[in-house]
Amino acid sequence: MEGPGVSSGYPWRIQWVAKNMVYLTRKLEFSASHLYHNPALSAEENKRIFGKCNNPHGHGHNYTLEVTVAGEPDPVTGMVLDLKELKEILEREITQRMDHRFLNYEVEELKGQIPTCENIARVIWNLLEPKITKGRLHKVRLYETPELFADCYRNGAQGA
Amino acid sequence: MSDGLKIELGRRYRFSASHRLHSEELSEEENRRVYGKCNNPHGHGHNYVVEVRVSGNVDPATGMIANLVDLDGFVDREVIEPFDHKLLNEEVAAFRNHVPTTENLCKEIYARLKRFSKAKLESVRVEETSNNTFEYAGEEL
């Protein structure tokens, strides 16, 4: 059912691409601030583990999010899902929730978690997966900077 | 967390190095034919970009798969320090007997980073230029 191939959606990225499926990716950017602090740890431990990210005033990033949806194009519309619909889902679920927010305090889903790239990617996955009803969510990639990102996908989907 | 989700952390690094593509097993003419400009005896250089992906459990106390200080330190020690501003053919032992194509470079970097103990190495992708990219994820187990 699945075989190795090169996804044209990701130039250069070798990945497992299922036959008959098309993978479409939509990108969006948002800016937000955060800080890393675990109240269960001492001030010294927080400083040691999180370094500059422990600054109590927080700091910000321009995040870039890439959302990949896999599916078979509808024979009538030729679409896996309407990109306008995906754009609206992303606007409602992600941009409105996270853009120009302090992630630690203003995003309910991140309360009690350290808002690392790993954890934000997982939260984004959980927000989007139930909303994407045409095709299925294949991968979420969140860039915190061009040099640092986290990927989230279903175990076994080998989506990277 | 057993929610069936897999998280990977990706990080990009840079180094600059020179190399010459030349195989001792080929004649001078064959070397020139196979490697073209890359066979220039004086070598030439690239600004390499190395993209590393690791996976593992996200530690609930830190929110991290691996602390970037540990990952960056390891990559710096194993790859950036020994490769940056070096002639790969002469100054990296692995390329005394192997042509330092970016295919081989990618595999060498993978072998070095596989030893990282704090997370599982998933793959190494090397951009030789913005037009040429190589990715390696190890051998089939």
In short:
The complex is a heterodimer of chains A (160) and B (141). By secondary structure, chain A is an alpha+beta fold. In chain A, 25% of the residues lie in helices and 34% in strands.
Characteristics:
heterodimer, A: 160 residues, alpha+beta, five-stranded mixed beta sheet, two-stranded antiparallel sheet, elongated, disordered N terminus, B: 141 residues, 4 helices
Helix and strand layout, with pairings?
The complex is a heterodimer of chains A (160) and B (141).
Chain A: E1 2-6, E2 14-18, E3 22-34, H1 43-50, E4 59-71, H2 83-98, E5 101-102, H3 103-106, H4 117-128, E6 136-145, E7 148-154
Parallel strand pairs in A: 3-5
Antiparallel strand pairs in A: 1-2, 3-4, 4-6, 6-7
Chain B: E1 5-19, H1 28-35, E2 44-55, H2 68-83, E3 86-87, H3 88-91, H4 102-113, E4 120-129, E5 132-136
Parallel strand pairs in B: 1-3
Antiparallel strand pairs in B: 1-2, 2-4, 4-5
DSSP, total strands of chain B: 5
How is the main sheet of chain A built? 5 strands, mixed
Strand fraction band of chain A? 25-35%
The spatial strand order of the largest sheet of chain A comes to 5-3-4-6-7
Individual helix count of chain A:
4
Q: Over all CA atoms, what is the radius of gyration of chain A?
A: 17 Å
